[in-house]
Amino acid sequence: MKATIWHNPRCSKSRAALDLLEAAPGVEVEVIEYLKSSPKRDEIAALLSKAGLAPREALRKGEAIIKEIGLDTGDDAAILDAMAQHPILIERAIVITDKGAVIARPPERALEVI
Questions:
Q1: Which domain range does residue 20 map to?
Q2: Which residues fall within 8 angstroms of residue 87, CB to CB, at 6 or more apart?
Q3: What distances in angstroms separate CA 14 from CA 42, 46, 57, 81, 94, one per listed residue?
Q4: Which pLDDT score is estimated for 72?
Q5: How many domains is the chain built from?
Q6: What is the pTM of this model?
Q7: Which residue of 17, 23, 53, 93 is 20 to 30 Å from 31, comparing CA positions?
Q8: What is the pLDDT of residue 2?
Q9: Does the annotation mark 11 as catalytic?
Q10: Which is the catalytic residue, given 11, 35, 45, 69?
């Protein structure tokens, strides 16, 4: 099975989710450091749709950039635009497999899709 993780190596929860995936037998892990290679708006929208999440549910609400840009956290279209411009706003880690996608918070949620 292949699992893709949108990963931030500076985040302990993201590192823990990656560790769980790498320890799972038969799982080939692809790591995407989404802060280095920013996903496009349509990629983010498709991923959130696969996870069954509205953009506001995947928004890191504590990030200072929200206030700096005056983001309306109730406007999903604006949130997607902001996530594409400022990927730090995307909650982490996100794990994607053929079974679905989840935000791995807590990290053990990664196991739900493998």
A1: 1-34+92-114
A2: 34, 35, 38, 39
A3: 23, 21, 17, 23, 8
A4: 97
A5: 1
A6: 0.92
A7: 53
A8: 98
A9: yes
A10: 11
CB 104, CB 14: distance < 8 Å: yes
* pLDDT for position 6: 97
The whole-number pLDDT of residue 24 equals 96
Tokens of 54: 């509205």
pLDDT score for 95:
98
Q: What is the DSSP string of the chain?
A: -EEEEE--TT-HHHHHHHHHHHHSTT-EEEEE-TTTSPPPHHHHHHHHHHHT--GGGGB-TT-THHHHHT--TT-HHHHHHHHHH-GGGB-S-EEEETTEEEE-SSGGGGGGG-
pLDDT of 19 reads 97
CA distances from 26 to 42, 102, 111, 114 (A): 30, 19, 13, 10
Report the CATH number at residue 19: 3.40.30.10
